[in-house]
Design brief:
9 helices, RibonucZ/Hydroxyglut_hydro, 279 residues, seven-stranded mixed β-sheet, alpha/beta, Metallo-beta-lactamase, Chain A, 25% strand, 16 strands, 26% helix, Metallo-B-lactamas
């Protein structure tokens, strides 16, 4: 099994449009790994795509991915779902007669689907795609494993935003993918893991200079995002053989080199767009 980080950014990608900070200027000049598109992961082997940010079709093209056996969605947030029309441009034959389409099964945890019904017209748009034959929607039950292309996939409920992580088991390898929203989550015993992909978390203070990065009012409890310190606790609890951190926000003001140094200090690897991890 091979895990590819299609997009390592967060809700505000790098470079941010119109931003002239040092991190964004460098990202425009140098590109990847300094630039970061929205959060998405592809599991080679079972060929499963997790989340479709705005840049999804470009990510798929850049990676040269031809086969997608299924799509998973972790939660409703736009940075994880707004590229959903990729399924139409990939699967639907616009000028065929009779009309025809490739149909990709899409798996969404039940509580996440309830949010799809509430926000941004996501459920309606997926029903449209389903009606044209581009996708087929399946709802997942928390902690109940299903089989996709020979892989066992178990949705693991997190605490906030009806978000979910996914435990993927394939050919004796076990991978945990948690795209976002891990604050207040207690992983419990998930067994041995070959790889954990987790969100970096946010930094109230710059990890090297100590400079305040968030207004004090924003950091008062309860926490609305995972703090970096909580991510370190999760890494210790999970004890995966490899840990890769993604969902890096432009607002952190940290470039790729600084994140590499931080990972070397604290025992994890920074994810970047196009990165592949052999499991």
């Amino acid at each position: 099994m091979r895990v590819e980080i299609l997009g390592s950014g967060g809700a505000v990608t790098i470079p941010r449009p119109g931003c002239s900070c040092a991190v964004c200027i460098e990202a425009r000049e140098k590109g990847v790994p300094y630039s970061r598109s929205g959060p998405s992961v592809f599991i080679h082997g079972p060929d499963i795509l997790i989340d479709t940010p705005e840049e999804s079709k470009d990510q798929i093209n850049r990676a040269g991915i031809m086969d997608i056996n299924a799509g998973l969605y972790s939660h409703w947030h736009p940075d994880h779902t707004a590229g959903r029309r990729m399924w139409e441009t990939r699967n639907f034959e616009f000028r065929s007669w009779p009309k025809r389409a490739i149909t990709t099964p899409i798996y969404v945890p039940e509580s996440a689907w309830a949010d799809f019904e509430k926000w941004y017209g996501i459920a309606d748009q997926f029903r449209w795609l389903e009606g044209q034959g581009s996708v087929e929607i399946h709802r997942m039950v928390d902690h109940v494993p299903i089989t996709i292309s020979g892989a066992t996939v178990t949705p693991i409920a997190l605490v906030h935003e009806n978000a979910h992580a996914f435990l993927i088991e394939f050919e004796a390898k076990r991978v945990l993918i948690a795209m976002d929203e891990t604050h207040y989550w207690e992983p419990g015993d998930l067994g041995p893991l070959d790889l954990a992909v987790l969100p970096l978390g946010v930094f109230p203070f710059h990890p090297w200079t100590g400079e305040r990065k968030m207004p004090e009012e924003f950091t008062k409890g309860p926490a609305r995002k995972t703090r970096y310190e909580q991510t370190l606790v999760h890494i210790e609890q999970l004890q995966a053989r490899q840990t890769v951190l993604i969902h890096i926000e432009e607002m952190e003001g940290l470039n790729h080199d600084e994140l590499v140094r931080l990972g070397e200090r604290d025992g994890w690897t920074i994810g970047f767009d196009g990165q592949t991890v052999e499991v």
